[in-house]
Amino acid sequence: MRCLDFLFIFQTLNVVKKYQRTYRMKYALPEPGYYEDGNFGIRLKNVVIVKEADTKFNFGDKGYLSFEHITWAPYQKKLIDLSLLSPEEVDWVNTYHSSCRDILAPHLDEHEKAWLKKATEPIGV
Fold first, then answer.
1. Which residues, including other chains, have CB under 8 Å from residue 110's CB and lie 6 or more apart?
2. Contacts of 97 (CB under 8 A, 6+ apart)
3. 5 CB-near residues (< 8 Å, 6+ apart)
4. Which is the most buried residue in 2, 41, 69, 109, by most CB within 10 A?
5. Cβ(22)–Cβ(15) under 8 Å?
6. By the 8 A CB rule, do 47 and 68 touch?
7. What InterPro entries does its record include (predicted)?
8. Do the Cβ atoms of 23 and 47 come closer than 8 Å?
């Protein structure tokens, strides 16, 4: 049996009451994962800050929340099945990888930069 699991493990978050925003400026660990029953499992983990989103519209004056990445590591492209992604999801991965390059490259030597460039090359459908 194959299982694709998308979990959000919230650390140090307040109890959320219905329709209230208590997540602001907390952090979360989105953990998309892939598991083969009786065989193995893989989780990809990032740390994100939950913050108020800057949106044009505001339904019922309640506001919206968004995520801001604070850890940056490219996703292993061999683990991505492009047939399961929409064009918008492909764009998201490519944008994320571009941000990884921009943020990490100044801290790397030439050998590490070469690896990063290859690891963050755009994917396509």
1. none
2. 74, 75, 119, 120, 121, 122, 123
3. 31, 32, 33, 34, 35
4. 69
5. yes
6. no
7. Creatinase/aminopeptidase-like, Peptidase_M24_C, X-Pro_aminopeptidase_P
8. no
In sequence order, what E strands does the chain have?
2-11, 26-36, 40-43, 48-52, 65-69
- The answer to whether the beta carbons of residues 28 and 7 sit under 8 Å apart is no
Do 26 and 10 meet the contact criterion of CB atoms below 8 Å apart?
Answer: yes
Domain stops at, among 48, 71, 94: 71
pTM of the model: 0.68
46 in the same domain as 6: yes
Residue 125, classified by CB atoms within 10 Å of its CB into exposed (0-12), middle (13-18) or buried (19+), is exposed
Report pLDDT digits (tens) over 21-60: 455 557 677 777 777 889 988 777 788 888 878 888 877 7
Q: Name residue, tokens 């921009």.
A: 102
